[in-house]
């Protein structure tokens, strides 16, 4: 009989303990919303734990999209670089030929650029307007698609739109000749960089 009472008491104590733990966690979460997870005075963080928490907090996107991302490990990243996983001699590999890239930048330097991604080899201008035809605009897209210095290593594209009742719509035209001329200009400009590198 005495063992039965002790057993019942142990079960009741366990249930109360578990329910209190659940209540504490819920209370901590409420206080996290008020103070922030790292700055919640009811969480017992040491100095190092607090610094780590704040670093993680700063690394998260405001939208919270990356809250489930794994933590970045700098040591592992450096080991991968040393082992050549990202390229040879500790350099990160790129698929962009530097001469074609520089030639593309030179040719588009007369325009405002919206995108100039050297790693991906992509350039896009802002919309280009003709002051004599304000109802038409065009933009240029250039993609370096080769790490080798070859004539087929660059692709160019013209996109043009017409304005009709304050709405911009594609004009539906293909600009093959203009794209060809632009590609030739890029190849011509890149040749100067290639030649100077050989000398």
Topology:
Blueprint (H helix, E strand, L loop, with lengths): L1 H34 L11 H13 L14 H9 L15 H10 L5 E5 L4 E4 L2 E3 L2 E12 L9 E11 L2 E4 L5 H23 L1
Antiparallel strand pairs: 1-2, 2-4, 3-4, 4-5, 5-6
What does this structure look like?
With 199 residues, the chain is α+β, with helices and mostly antiparallel strands. It has a domain at 98-198: TATA-Binding Protein (2-Layer Sandwich), CATH 3.30.310. It has helices at 2-35, 47-59, 74-82, 98-107, 176-198; strands at 113-117, 122-125, 128-130, 133-144, 154-164, 167-170. A hairpin with a 2-residue loop joins strand 5 (154-164) and strand 6. Helix 4 (98-107) packs across helix 5. The longest helix is centred in the N-terminal third of the chain and has 34 residues, at 2-35. The N and C termini lie far apart (100 Å). Mean pLDDT is 78; it is low at 61-66.
């Amino acid at each position: 009989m005495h063992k039965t009472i002790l057993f019942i008491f142990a079960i009741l104590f366990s249930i109360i303990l578990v329910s209190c733990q659940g209540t504490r966690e819920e209370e901590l979460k409420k206080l996290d919303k008020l103070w922030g997870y790292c700055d919640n005075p009811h969480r017992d963080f040491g100095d190092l734990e607090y610094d780590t928490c704040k670093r993680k907090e700063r690394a998260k996107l405001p939208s919270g999209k990356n809250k489930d991302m794994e933590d970045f490990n700098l040591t592992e990243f450096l080991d991968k670089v040393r082992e050549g996983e990202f390229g040879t001699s500790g350099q990160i590999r790129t698929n962009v030929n530097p001469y074609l890239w520089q030639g593309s930048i030179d040719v588009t330097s007369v325009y405002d650029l919206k995108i100039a991604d050297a790693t991906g080899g992509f350039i896009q201008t802002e919309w280009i307007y003709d002051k004599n035809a304000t109802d038409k605009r065009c933009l240029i897209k250039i993609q370096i698609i080769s790490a080798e210095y070859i004539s087929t290593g660059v692709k160019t594209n013209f996109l043009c739109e017409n304005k009709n009742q304050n709405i911009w719509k594609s004009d539906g035209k293909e600009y093959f000749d203009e794209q060809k001329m632009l590609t030739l200009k890029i190849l011509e400009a890149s040749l100067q960089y290639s030649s100077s590198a050989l000398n």
